[in-house]
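Action item from last meeting closed. Structure (156 res):
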């Protein structure tokens, strides 16, 4: 899996999405179609995309809604990834989002579960939480983030 430390080299949003897809694959969908779909999704009404370090976060919510269904494209180091997630959580907190849901392929559990544990450590004292479940087909982790009400100020 290719990783680029954002403290040494910051990639563009497009570079991150493409590298992430190279790392994890696109299933039966051709790379060009998958990229087009993602960038089109980022342009949809009530969608957002934001980059912190070499991580791109995307999401959809109802107008003035408090819940967001998201996607994450990461090619940053684990340490930076945690900081990037905290920055994103602070961003959606300011937008009034209280609940964030994202899925990850179960195959990447060894890499993602320790990072999510650190995110939980950072959010819990503020009243937030991170829960992880398994999808019905048992192929994905479902990650539920309760965004705390107290301001997220610190970085991991």
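Sequence:
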């Amino acid at each position: 899996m290719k990783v680029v430390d954002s403290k040494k080299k910051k990639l563009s949003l497009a570079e991150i999405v493409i590298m992430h897809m190279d790392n994890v694959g696109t299933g039966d969908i051709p790379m060009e179609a998958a990229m087009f779909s993602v960038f089109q999704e980022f342009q949809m009404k009530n969608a957002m995309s934001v980059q912190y370090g070499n991580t791109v976060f995307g999401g959809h919510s109802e107008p003035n809604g408090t819940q967001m269904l998201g996607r994450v494209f990461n090619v940053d180091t684990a340490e930076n990834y945690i900081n990037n997630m905290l920055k994103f959580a602070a961003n959606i907190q300011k937008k009034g989002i209280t609940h964030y849901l994202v899925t990850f392929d179960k195959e990447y559990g060894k890499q993602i579960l320790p990072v999510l544990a650190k995110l939980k450590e950072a959010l819990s004292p503020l009243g937030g939480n991170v829960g992880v479940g398994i999808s019905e087909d048992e192929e994905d982790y479902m990650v539920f983030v309760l965004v705390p009400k107290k301001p997220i100020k610190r970085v991991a």
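Note appended to the action item: The first strand starts at residue 47 and ends at 52.
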